[in-house]
Amino acid sequence: MKKSEINSSEIARLAGVSRSTVSRVINNYSNVPAETRDKVLKVIEKYNYFPNASAQVLAGKRARTIGLFLIDQGNVSSDILTNMLIVSVIEHASVLDYYVLTHIIRNAKDTEVIRNVREIFYQRRIDGGIFIGAANREPFIEQLIDEGFVVGVVDQELPDHPEPNRIVSNFNNDSGMKQAVAYLAGLGHSRIGVVNGDMNRLSGQTKYEGFKTAMRMCGLQVNPKWVMDGDFHETSGYNAIQTLLGIESELPTAIVAANDSVAFGAIRAIKEHGLLVPDDISIIGFDDHALSEKHHPPLTTIRVDFSAMLKRMTTYLIEKIEQKTLTVKEITLDCSLVVRESCRRI
Amino acid sequence: MKKSEINSSEIARLAGVSRSTVSRVINNYSNVPAETRDKVLKVIEKYNYFPNASAQVLAGKRARTIGLFLIDQGNVSSDILTNMLIVSVIEHASVLDYYVLTHIIRNAKDTEVIRNVREIFYQRRIDGGIFIGAANREPFIEQLIDEGFVVGVVDQELPDHPEPNRIVSNFNNDSGMKQAVAYLAGLGHSRIGVVNGDMNRLSGQTKYEGFKTAMRMCGLQVNPKWVMDGDFHETSGYNAIQTLLGIESELPTAIVAANDSVAFGAIRAIKEHGLLVPDDISIIGFDDHALSEKHHPPLTTIRVDFSAMLKRMTTYLIEKIEQKTLTVKEITLDCSLVVRESCRRI
DNA sequence: CTGAAAGCGCTTACAG
DNA sequence: CTGAAAGCGCTTACAG
Question: Closest-CA residue in chain A for B4?
């Protein structure tokens, strides 16, 4: 019933050695004879002793904890992707014997919120942190990096002279967009629109840039009326298409969505207008969201492996914390077209 | 570029007071004159000082961190419900200024895994923990409670003489099952089957018990051939119905599924056999999963508010940690029928 | 190979 | 109202 209050002195006493030796055993020092070692381990085992983490950290060891910061004003909780991200980080950190402290940032512009995030680093609760969903070059993250904390940022630009404590990871959005446009062009589309993502995010920018480049390379014109704003959320796709269908008489035959959520929203709006996908308008997404395959119609999209990305990010971040891989600065993962049923030949 | 290394001595020196006073200011002691307080706060603010968390904990303060333990052998990552649970806990802990250390337990029977979980408590990384997905009376959790740690367990029986450091939360599964059966009976069904959940879990047991009681109260017979095993996962629903449709010539007109995932699997199997829901067989689920509304057909189910449950669990757990609500032992939430299109009148 | 001792950065009785 | 000092439970040079 009583909480264990045994400490290293007690273990030392019971094993007939000094606390120094107990510590050496726990930390696997090589200069402890097997016999002493076994004797101590036996006592540790018997009394269910685990060293107090705070004392260890205070004495100079790492917290063996990383922070996972999810920036999303919306409904993080209902997004199946978010879940995969969280679980990927936790599981891969766990393999390296690290813990994950997850924090949700609803408003990255609120100074009180920023203060809380900074506090977690300054309090030394974590050895480093991963940020997901941040604006490109988000100032408070730049500051943390500047202050020397080990930080990994997903979907972020690498500066010209990157600090050794910064890691950045991205998908090859340019390639993805080129594949999307090439596929549509191959199906005979030339009237292609786009619903953009959040342009404060690097991926929002690179996807749109990729789209424009791809259109040019396919010899196609970008019609400004078919370039629509969005923010990576379902609703923005819905709203964009609502507006388009409400105003424009000239419609595109295909639309590239900044991600699958946006594509879902777009399709919903199209259906509400009594039109069909892909019969009236073809839609291609980006991400290959867990629901895309089961969507009606099954969504043609650009597949991206978030789980692999977060695994690598987590691994490299921890290696950086432990001063191993000093050279890794950037992680880039490819993406590839998955053909389903939301685009048709015309 | 350099990591902040300022500490309370430094702040004390800069403010012209002692470390004791700095500590008193930080901890909001009442016996510090406003003037001194302001002077110290100014320096703290200026130098961006945050007390080292490990030192605070070692000196006797709480870690202000709770553990969230998710037990799931399967694909935690693809379950949208899990995400909501994690986010609910994190956000409500955050309101109370607590952090959440999330841990995934793939195999609650593996001694090494159990050791890791126990370690987190013994290391004093957390002040308490919440377990989700555990078997009823899972021994290692019982042990932690026995050892005096503050623990909340979702979907768990309350023992006869509950310890003050235990909280348990459940949905009123009995009521839910009665509503489900009553609804089906009202639609004219008398041939009602059930796909059970994991019978090691309390909810697996209570749902089945509720089902049997409800059938009796409606004057209906439980046909043992229509009582199928499951484990709360989609696949088990699929397998159960595959077997049923493969073997039995006499079929039920309606099936109650232990949860919505099981219902999805059941419907998938029914469709594969060329039958229709609800035309050939009616299906009712349990949970009101985020996808149930969008399912084809939209799933009739028993709605349950996981987010509210986890919010209350988190709040009470932290209050227990802080020795406030000493009386709360059990949280029970009601559930209610949501009629959609997966059940028909016969 | 091993112990005594200093030190990590706090908090909190204690004394004044 | 405030400071000096002890103590939290570890780790790690240092000396032997």
Answer: A147
CATH number at residue B228: 3.40.50.2300
- A249: which residues sit within 8 A by CB, 6+ positions away? none
What value, to the nearest 5°, has the Cα angle with vertex B307 and ends B302 and B311?
Answer: 135
Residues of B in contact with A94 (CB under 8 A): 103-104
Closest-CA residue to A133 (of A259, A267, A244, A241): A259
pLDDT tens digit string along A74-86?
765 557 788 889 9
Q: Based on the fold, state whether residues A124 and A181 are members of the same structural domain.
A: no
Question: Residue A302's beta-bridge partner residues?
Answer: A337
Residue A129 and residue A273 in one domain: no
Residues 6+ apart with CB under 8 A from A122: B4, B48, B49, B50
Alpha-carbon distance of A108 to A104, in angstroms, equals 10
CB of A127 closer than 8 Å to CB of A150: yes
Q: How many helices (H) and strands (E) does chain A have?
A: 12, 12
Mean pLDDT of the region A186-197: 97
Would you say residue A331 has pLDDT above 50? yes
Q: Which residues of chain B have pLDDT under 70?
A: 1-4, 75-78
Q: Which range of residues forms the domain containing residue A315?
A: 65-171+306-333
Helix-, strand-, coil-residue percentages of chain B, each rounded to 5: 45, 15, 40
Candidates A3, A94, A123; nearest CB to B149: A3
CA of A343 to C1' of C9 (A): 62
What is the distance between the alpha carbons of residues A82 and B55, in angstroms, rounded to a whole number?
33
Closest CA to B51 of B39, B67, B35, B40: B40
Find, in chain B, the residue whose alpha carbon is nearest to that of A85: B77
The answer to whether residue B95 sits within a structural domain is: yes
Chain A residues with beta carbon closer than 8 angstroms to that of B53? 54, 123-125
- Enumerate residues 98 to 127 of chain A having a beta carbon within 8 A of any beta carbon in chain B: 99-104, 118-120, 122-125
